């Protein structure tokens, strides 16, 4: 049997190729960034062809670093930024436009238009999702309405859609020469076009948004063989796992039991709780999504709280204000003060996501006095991520009727000990950082691929790989916790209804 398993981790800002051994340890990796394109305020785009070039580069580099041959890999999984929308010509392989990124808000008018007839939750029962700029369906509609000829070509089956996973699988397995046009249930569940219960494209949703069914990929499980790679560096290796990045983290963190939850601290912040084999429709502003589906086994569902701005707030202080030189400096600066000095930052740069879903909110800094220093701003930036996480946890416990006992944390920000301690304090819960945390999403998709080809036996096999690195225990008094959270809620209210 081949010795290793691998994953393509295609994120919002960069692409990685990571090779793991059977214990989940990284044995080779390569990473490359791609351009962030901002054509106008609120618009965020990527060049899908650039992402494909970076993907090829990092695969070749990671394989070269250790002298790996294709036969050294049992299978490859893919995890990806979700909702980001690519429409391309199946005959030429060329995108008809730049990809519209999940953060993009250009469909805000369409959200308002559909919400006027039935409210923001009119499609929630079918899709688990509120009407929002976040999801892929309205992005597809925008491309079909604004790119000349796109709608006619889509009806003719010449122009096809995919989230980034679909685009990469199609390219990897042959592209114009018979590439597989597929997506998995986790990514399909983020389009607002898939019926949560049938796990198929919903005819009523397609009609409502005016999207031809023939342009959509075939929906598959998260763990099966979709095709074989055609690139020389990995030629013949099975592409056998697909999971949207946050669902991949659930698998990487082995949250396989209802009530188990993980929070990924990255550009945004995404908290998912496994709710079992039945979807739980939220009444508290959360998303209902597919957590994973392993082969022919029943799909498992999750509640998700999506926070748009987490690590991006630190980047904003670094890039727009020069407050720090590199992101990791934020903890050092925040430790120059004992508390936030009454300063709160609500990073509603493109509206508020869960649990509010207020597209017209905008960012505010509240509680400023002459006493405030850059140290207080740094601390407020870190605390904003923890406060937002608490709001999501409270909504999640209310919807799922499950009391969270521990929070598993992963992503780049978990190296920040000050943030992790404050997160434990404000939640009044233990927060656990696993040994494998920097590549949890990639590991999850590699696990899915490994299960599909028999490299791993079952979910118990994966559980044996998980181990805790550090656990933070709450140290804050109940009175202090209540006082600072009350002021946070007051600051959030100040961000509401900023735009018309």
Structure description:
- The protein is of the alpha+beta class.
- The chain contains 16 helices and 23 strands.
- Strands 17-18-16-15-21-22-23 form a seven-stranded mixed β-sheet. Strands 3-2-1-5-14-13 form a six-stranded mixed β-sheet, sandwiched between helices. Strands 4-7 form a two-stranded antiparallel ribbon.
- A hairpin with a 3-residue loop joins strand 15 and strand 16.
- Helix 9 crosses helix 14, helix 10 runs antiparallel to helix 12 and helix 12 packs across helix 13.
- The longest helix has 27 residues.
- The N and C termini lie far apart (60 Å).
Largest sheet, spatial ordering of strands: 17-18-16-15-21-22-23
| DSSP E strands, number | 23
What's the overall geometry? Answer: globular
Class based on secondary structure composition and strand pairing: alpha+beta
* Percentage of residues in helical conformation: 25-40%
Beginning-to-end CA distance, first to last residue = 60 Å
| Average of pLDDT | 93
State the major sheet.
Answer: 7 strands, mixed
Counting DSSP H or I runs of 4 or more residues, the number of helices is: 16
| Cα gyration radius (Å) | 22 Å
**Approximately how much beta-strand content do the residues carry?**
15-25%
Can you tell me the residue ranges where pLDDT is under 50 for at least 5 consecutive residues?
none
């Amino acid at each position: 049997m081949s010795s290793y398993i691998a994953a393509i981790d295609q994120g919002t800002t960069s692409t990685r190729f990571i090779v793991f051994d059977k214990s989940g340890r990284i044995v080779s990796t390569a990473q490359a960034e791609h351009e962030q394109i901002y054509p106008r305020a609120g618009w965020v785009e990527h060049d899908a062809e650039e992402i494909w070039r970076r993907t090829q580069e990092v695969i070749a580099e990671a394989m070269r670093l250790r002298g790996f041959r294709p036969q050294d890999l049992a299978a490859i999984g893919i995890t990806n930024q979700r909702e980001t929308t690519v429409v391309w010509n199946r005959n030429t392989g060329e995108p008809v436009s730049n990809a519209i990124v999940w953060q993009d808000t250009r469909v805000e008018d369409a959200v308002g238009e559909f919400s006027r007839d039935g409210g923001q939750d009119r499609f929630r029962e079918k899709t688990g999702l509120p009407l929002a700029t976040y999801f892929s369906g309205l992005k597809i509609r925008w491309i079909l309405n604004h790119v000349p000829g796109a709608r006619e070509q889509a009806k003719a089956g010449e122009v096809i859609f995919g989230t980034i996973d679909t685009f990469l699988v199609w390219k990897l397995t042959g592209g114009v020469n018979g590439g597989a046009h597929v997506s998995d249930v986790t990514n399909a569940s983020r389009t607002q076009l898939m019926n949560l219960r049938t796990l198929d494209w919903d005819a009523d949703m397609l009609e409502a948004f005016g999207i031809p069914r023939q342009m959509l990929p075939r929906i598959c499980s998260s763990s099966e063989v979709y095709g074989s790679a055609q690139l020389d560096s990995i030629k013949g290796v099975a592409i056998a796992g697909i999971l949207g990045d946050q669902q991949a983290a659930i698998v990487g963190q082995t949250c396989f039991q209802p009530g188990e939850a993980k929070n990924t601290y990255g550009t945004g912040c995404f908290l998912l709780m496994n709710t079992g084999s039945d979807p739980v429709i939220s009444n508290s502003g959360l998303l209902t999504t597919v957590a994973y589906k392993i082969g022919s086994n029943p799909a498992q569902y999750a509640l998700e709280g999506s926070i748009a701005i987490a690590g991006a707030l630190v980047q904003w202080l670094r890039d727009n204000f020069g407050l720090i030189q590199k992101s990791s400096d934020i903890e050092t600066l925040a430790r120059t003060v004992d508390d936030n000095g009454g300063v709160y930052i609500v990073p509603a740069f493109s509206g508020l996501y869960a649990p509010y879903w207020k597209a017209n909110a905008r960012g505010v800094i509240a509680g400023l006095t002459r006493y405030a220093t850059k140290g207080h701003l740094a601390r407020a930036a870190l605390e904003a991520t923890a406060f937002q996480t608490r709001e999501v946890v409270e909504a999640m416990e209310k919807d799922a009727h499950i009391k969270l006992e521990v929070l598993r944390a992963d992503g780049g920000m978990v190296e920040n000990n000050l943030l992790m301690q404050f997160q434990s304090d404000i939640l009044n819960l233990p927060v656990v950082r696993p040994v494998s945390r920097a590549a949890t999403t990639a590991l999850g998709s590699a696990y899915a691929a490994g299960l599909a080809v028999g490299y791993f036996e079952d979910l118990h096999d994966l559980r044996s790989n998980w181990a805790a690195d550090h656990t933070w225990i709450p140290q804050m008094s109940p009175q202090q916790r209540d006082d600072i959270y009350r002021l946070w809620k007051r600051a959030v209210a100040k961000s509401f209804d900023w735009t018309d």
